[in-house]
């Protein structure tokens, strides 16, 4: 059985790889990483992973924060929205089509 720590590390690493693929415009790779993230999130949902996931809301990588906020949106809506709001303030990819308040 895979440990919770290993799953959290896989989620983090895969989110970073997803971000790199997005930044490079590699749609095929970003889709591949999204599928991995989906599978990891399914496994995390079966475990008591909320505390560990919440810690990732402050991760240094913006894509880890994005995927974490999305994963916790139903559990922690206000905190997730804050992450989305923060990311929308960044230039480049994050501000495309987003209205800044």
From TrEMBL:
Official protein name in the record: DUF2019 domain-containing protein
Domain DUF2019: from-to ranges: 6-91
Source organism per UniProt: Chengkuizengella axinellae
InterPro entries: ARM-type_fold, DUF2019, PI3K_accessory_sf
């Amino acid at each position: 059985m895979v440990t919770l720590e290993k799953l959290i590390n896989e989620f983090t690493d895969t989110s970073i790889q997803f971000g790199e693929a997005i930044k490079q415009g590699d749609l095929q790779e970003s889709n591949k990483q999204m599928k991995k993230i989906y599978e990891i999130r399914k496994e995390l949902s079966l475990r008591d992973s909320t505390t560990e996931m919440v810690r990732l809301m402050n991760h240094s990588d913006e894509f880890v924060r994005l995927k974490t906020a999305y994963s916790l949106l139903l559990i922690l809506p206000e905190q997730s929205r804050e992450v989305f709001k923060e990311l929308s303030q960044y230039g480049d990819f994050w501000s495309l089509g987003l209205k800044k308040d």
